[in-house]
Amino acid sequence: MSAPVLSSTSTGPENSGVGGRFHAWAVTGQNWVVVLCMAVMAVLPVVEIVLRKFFKESLTGSAAIVQHLTLAVGMLGGVLAARDGRLLAMSAVNAFLKGRWLDWARLVSSVIAVVATIFLAVGGVQLVVEERNSDSIIAYGVPAWVGELLVPVGFVLIALYLLWLAGKTWKPRVGALLATGLVVWLLLHPPVDPEKLVVPALCVLLVATVLGAPVFVTLGGASVILFWGAGQPVSAITISHYKLVTNPSLPAIPLFTLTGYLLAESGASQRFVRVFHSLFAGIRGGPAIVTCLVCAFFTTFTGASGVTILALGGPLIPVLLAAKYSERHALGFLTSAGALGLLFPPCLPLILYAIIAKDVSLDKMFLGGLLPGLLLVGMTAALGIALAPRLDVERPRFDRAAAWSAIWAAKWELLIPVVALIGLLGGFATPVESAALTAIYTFCIEVFIYRDLNVRKDFGRVFTEAGLVVGGVLLILGVAQGFTNYLVDEQFAAKAVEWVTANIHSKGVFLLVLTLFLFLVGSLMDVFSAIIVVVPLMVPMAKIYGIDPVHLGILFLANLELGYMMPPMGMNLFLASYRFNKPLAEVYRFILPMLAVQMVGVFIITYLPVLSTFLPKWFGK
User: Fold this and answer.
1) 3-state SS, residue 445
2) Residue of 547, 620, 536, 150 lying closest to 352 (CA atoms)
3) Which residues lie closer than 8 Å to 423 by C-beta, 6 or more apart?
């Protein structure tokens, strides 16, 4: 995933008084609406399981309610991310520009971001107006257009916050407002045919992206420009956004994200480190093995490895340094291990891929990722063993009592994968219900058993943080779907298939070209938007060469896993630089040995499809 804006930016009145109090109330109100939506999303599916299992009953419209709560969390979480200056962006301009140059970069990127968001809001209004004439309802007589109203309202609030972030004082903010008005007027009254302005407008958008515009603005703005140039209504983008975010399987993403944040904010990371350290500390390279296993376990639930680095960097770096690994190897190792776990169920990219690809089931993707995921973990751990310093002192011996004590202390958290998978693979819960059950289970053990989280102090904070991250991701997914639909409407996929089949006649060559292409995609795009944009184009090509759908999905995600640490834009590189206070150039150098080893692993996954297909076929029998 691309580099996020990590710092929180003040967006409200700096002074006390009525304005300050109103802003504080608004912030609190926004946070608690997101918390309430997340909580109801988690509870309703679990209630549905209980009613169905023990009373042969069901809640009327519960699935539709949960889907629209996902839309609410997506839009309002996006508002929170915009408010706090934490929308995902592909630019590292903050690290290179200072003073007046940074102010100008912020102003320009903010103006373009606000313009794009305004047009997305207009598309949302068009969507609501069109839906007012239909008889579609969500549940209990609530018309669908009421839920759809969240889309334009959310984009309007995001635009307002982006406008506020244009500067630190009123002068640049007013300047941004006037510039926004001028750009909007020019787009509504273009001096020439809009089709002739598409390329210049895309170039301006590219500049804004380089200067720090959020990822959703890049994809949404490109969609707006392309539809505008083709004379098509902007509502086509928001319709795609609405349909994707209310997909029946998509609520699993915010629910598993909530599980990850409950783990990240509790003492789970220390307990996991203790468990794996007690098992492997006596082995040469044991700390590296511990790092691989803990990061893989953690990323399985957080989905975004950035959380893994931020949560585990503190406890793991001292372990590696104490084992006499050089600082270079320790930082490089943790940066690369932060992406491990992406192929293990129930990681979010596996779920999203199954939703978008449509030709492969979620349970097969879960099974297909196990062996390739273990391969990458094993190869990374083997490198850690090879890099382990040869110490003259004797390594600690395995202590069975200490290992059992650590496992017993973390037993409830070690059961989380079982809880996540038993409902789905056992056949009594849908993916969304399994995700909700996992979130509720994790909440209960962290609050009532381990007592790491306090309901009064931590409930709102953790749920708000999860909702903020979900909102940023779902904004990207929704507008990316609109961009993909434009490509489909223009028959881009069909043209690409025609070109590929005319020029590439070997399955092996196609896999090589695809792998190199995905290396590039992974270095420039986050994994979620890459799934939305690239998968619909890739699947038709792969069918021509007879590539198994599960194998295609796993090799795609394995390649994108590399994107987390692929220069120049891999998110782990920026997060490691931020977390460990190291220049990016140094982080690039630290990561090279780990990157090379995982590249070899990806090529093995690509050219040995049995790794991905064996378990799905075996369980299928």
Assistant:
1) helix
2) 536
3) 49, 429, 433, 434, 437
Burial bucket for residue 89 (CB in 10 Å: 0-12, 13-18, 19+) = buried
More confident residue, 56 or 157: 157
Question: How far is 339 from 364, CA to CA, in rounded Å?
Answer: 21
| Coil, helix or strand at residue 233 | coil
User: Residue 238 has which token pair?
Assistant: 């928001």
Alpha-helical (H) ranges within 490-583 are 492-503, 507-524, 527-544, 549-563, 571-580
Averaged pLDDT, 581-589? 79
139 bridge partner residues: 142
Higher pLDDT, 181 or 575: 181
Greatest pairwise CA separation for the chain in angstroms: 79
Residue 3 — very low, low, confident or very high, per pLDDT cuts 50/70/90? very low
In the structure, what pLDDT confidence band is assigned to residue 117 with cuts at 50, 70 and 90? very high
Buried b (16+ CB within 10 A) or exposed e, 530-566: bbbbbbbbbbebbeebebbbbbbbbbbbbbbbbbbbb
**Helix (H) and strand (E) counts for the chain?**
30, 2
pLDDT at residue 2 is higher than 60: no
Reported as a single tens digit per residue, the pLDDT across 316-328 is 888 888 888 888 8
Pairing of strands 137-139, 142-143: antiparallel
Find out whether 418 and 319 touch, Cβ atoms under 8 Å.
no
Spatial separation of the C-alpha atoms in residues 146 and 64, rounded to whole Å = 13
CB atoms within 10 A of CB 396: 12
Could you give the CA distance from residue 468 to residue 456 in angstroms, rounded to a whole number?
20
What 3-state class would DSSP assign to 369? coil
**Cβ contacts of 55 within 8 Å, gap of 6 or more:** none
Question: How does pLDDT run across 391-443, given as a tens digit for each residue?
Answer: 645 667 778 899 999 999 999 999 998 888 887 777 778 889 999 999 999 99
Residue 75: Cβ-neighbour burial (10 angstroms; 0-12, 13-18, 19+): buried
Structure tokens at 219: 């994809």
Residue 109 has pLDDT above 70, yes or no: yes
Buried b (16+ CB within 10 A) or exposed e, 181-216: eebeeebeeeeeeeeebbeebeebbeebbbbbbbbb
